[in-house]
Structures are given as C-alpha cells and as structure tokens.
Write a structure and sequence with these properties.
Elements: H1 4-13, H2 24-39, H3 46-49, H4 55-63, H5 65-73, H6 76-87, H7 92-107
Amino acid sequence: MQTFAFVLREQLARPSLRLHVNSCRACRRSDAEEAAKRDGSWDVYDAVEQLTIPSDLEAAFADNKAAGQNFVAFSTSNKKQLLWYVASAKRPETRKKRIAQIVHAAAQNKNPLA
C-alpha cells in the first residue's frame, strides 16, 4: 500500500504528469505537497522502500537470532509489508505489539500478516 505522499512524489517526478503552476489543480497539489513536507508524511515511508530495519525491530531480532535470520530471508515484498506494518503504527504500544508479533512469527519462519 502506497501513501498519498509517496504517490504524489512519484507523479511530480514525471514531467508528463506535472501541471501548470497557474492551474487550480497545481496549486492544490503544491499545497498538499508542502503540507506533507511540513508534517513529515512526505518521506515517512522512505525507510520502508529502502528496507531499513528500525532500531527497535533490530533490537528484537538481536534477542531472537532465528527470527532475524528468517526475516532477512523473506522476500522483498514481505519485508516491505512488515516494515510498513511497524512504521504505520500510530501509538508506541501498537508498535511494540506489532514488533513482538513479527518476531514471534519470523522465529517460526512465517509472515504474521499472511
């Protein structure tokens, strides 16, 4: 699943999809882009796209070596799905719960979301 900011950035990168600055749609798009940059949602999922494992998940894998080894062996799409699952948690408790769920399933060489 791609975020609005990710899709918008991809569209703005393509010259064929750029709109004229004076058009109303371009102004709205520009405003949305600026708002996403201000609130941090513009690049919040870049780490997921780059398959960067967050430090708290990395620490959980350090405690469970088998889970870490199995996670590394997962397909790229599965890793992105699980990293997004962690990154999209809004509350710290939810994030901790999701990390525990991922580590438990990865130790059994399973995707908890499958």
